[in-house]
Amino acid sequence: MKVLNAGTRAAVVLCLATALVHVLLVFLHVAPPNPVSQQYSRQVNAWVLPLFEQNWRLFAPDPESVNRQISARTMHTAPDGSVQVSNWFDLTAVDNSAVKHNAFPSHTAQNTLRRAWSSYLETHGGDDQARSPRALMIQRYLTNIAADRISRHGGGIFESVQLRVITVPIAAPAAVGGPGSATATPKPVDTRYLPWWKVDSHGN
C-alpha cells in the first residue's frame, strides 16, 4: 500500500511538473521577444512546434481566400525492380467528410492538414528546399500525415510519397450592380507538385 501511495504521489508530481514546464514554454513562445525567450528559443521551438503552435487567429481571423485540394500518391519498388505508382488519394476529401454534417468536428479533421501545408509554405517558399531544421521538420510532418492517412485507407505497400496541391482562388463578392460585378476576371487555378519524399515503409 505504501508503495502504491508513493507511486501515485510521484505520478502526480511528474504530471504537475510537466504541465508547469509546458505552460512556461508556451508562454515564452507567445510572449514578446525577451532575453529569456531568445536565449532558449531552440528549446522552446523544439517543444512547441508543430503540435502546440499558438497564434492569434481566433481573435484576429484571416479568412481563407483560396480553396485547396491536397492529394497524395505513393510509389513502391517491387523485388524485381519494377516501380508501381498509385492513383492520387484525396486527403482533403477525407477531412471534409469528417467535418460535414458533424456538429462537433474535431480539431484534427479541421486543421491538421491545413496548418501543416500553411507551415510548409512559410518555411519552403516556392522551391521546396528545406533550408532550416524547422523547415525539414515541417516537411517530415506533412509527409507523415499523408503516409499515415493513406495507410489507414488501405494504401498498400509503399516507400515514397508525393503530394499535389490544387489551389482554387475564392472570388471576392461583388456588390450587386456595382463596378465589375459581372466582369471580374477570376484568378487562375494553380497546381503544384511536390517532390517524391522517402518515408518509413508502410503497408503489409
Structural features, described:
The protein has 204 residues and is of the alpha+beta class. It is built from 6 helices and 6 strands, in the order H-H-H-E-E-E-H-H-H-E-E-E. Strands 1, 2, 3, 4, 5 and 6 form a 6-stranded antiparallel β-sheet that branches. The longest helix has 29 residues. It is globular and about 65 Å long. The model has no long low-confidence stretch (mean pLDDT 81).
What can be said about this structure in brief?
With 204 residues, the protein is α+β, with helices and mostly antiparallel strands. It is 44% helix and 19% strand.
Write the layout of secondary structure elements.
Elements: H1 2-30, H2 35-39, H3 41-48, E1 66-77, E2 83-85, E3 89-90, H4 91-99, H5 107-124, H6 133-152, E4 158-169, E5 190-193, E6 197-202
Antiparallel strand pairs: 1-2, 1-3, 1-4, 4-5, 4-6
Task: Please describe the structure with a list of short key phrases separated by commas or semicolons.
single chain, 204 residues, alpha+beta, six-stranded antiparallel beta sheet, 6 helices, 6 strands
Number of strands: 6
Overall pLDDT level:
81
Q: Which stretches are poorly predicted, pLDDT < 50 over at least 5 residues?
A: none
The proportion of residues in beta strands is: 15-25%
User: Alpha-carbon distance between the termini?
Assistant: 46 Å
Describe the biggest sheet?
Answer: 6 strands, antiparallel
Instruction: Tally the helices.
Output: 6
Give the radius of gyration: 22 Å
Structural class: alpha+beta
| Helical residue percent band | 40-55%
